């Protein structure tokens, strides 16, 4: 079945340079630097990436960072808690707009 | 208890079938270069040995565990055990050389009835003995409870598999209850001084992924293991070796059954690292099978890939002839050359 998302496309990510090499090279160099050990460990960054992958939501990133977090020795509980962080922020982002709705209700109502 | 592939008559119990399956997938399905070609591209084919530093002896396939990833297809139903006569041939060969380390593996090497005698005799030759202990054997039966003391007496370096610092992942790979028994055994080893600072008694752990993925950076994993085992169980150890699962035997079966086969092989080939390839353990290791056959490594041994030398058996051990050999490689070798590389002592690059 043909779909918009093909898992095989993930490993072709590096080919985006075929259409614009300079920006792709800069992006991948930046990407590599971002995920290196720093003030945050590579493991912590991988968990953040997994959460963001779900928030975005990007099936390629979810596949990639599920494997990456496993490789970095994350537990399944840690991985699911990261997804809950994404869900809480997404849910919170929706709900906090409820205040705007309440403000408008109060403005319009007697 | 789960049975070995051999006991169930599984196709993958045949080494020839495994080699066919590996070649078909790498070359014909994935259209990736065969291993020897990849090595030639980086100037490492034919692959030649360096001075041997390790004599790795597999004293038998019998084991008290049936791990899902085991490349030996070991288990309680395996009867292949090295005899005392073959052990004596190993000692004779060892005496002719200055190979400093003897690495005893299995199965569970301690289940070989001549294991203790063998360790004592190797020690008398002044060589370092390293035992690949699965931990649970120490608590499996009363007759093994004193193994930590025995190891200590002979200054044995203990290397033990612990795929994770929690029960779920460990037991999924190694069997129900293995984690709890491993913790008990680690405490017994710690109690006699193993892993304790200043004791001189070395206890190293082996991490290998519980699934179709590669190990992450060894140093980071070691930090996590040290922290978690100390916090949760007051257990200490020296080093953690991160080892890649090689697509052989039961792990190959898992990959095929779980439909991860193509993805995993592709990952290994894509992650080919010339620096890791230059440091593969087969270059400084000679592997002896339970029946005395000689191999370049324990994986080749399980695939019946004998050394390419006139010295084919430990009774005909000829260090000079072996030094001239070309190391036998095949598609499974991609497992040792991926990423930071993999050996019985962990990463190599």
TrEMBL record, chain A:
What would you give as a GO molecular function for this chain, any one?
peroxiredoxin activity
Q: What highest taxon heads this organism's lineage?
A: Bacteria
Domain (Carboxymuconolactone decarboxylase-like) spans: 22-101
PANTHER family per UniProt: ALKYL HYDROPEROXIDE REDUCTASE AHPD, BLR3452 PROTEIN
**Record-given protein name:** 4-carboxymuconolactone decarboxylase
Species annotation: Hymenobacter ginkgonis
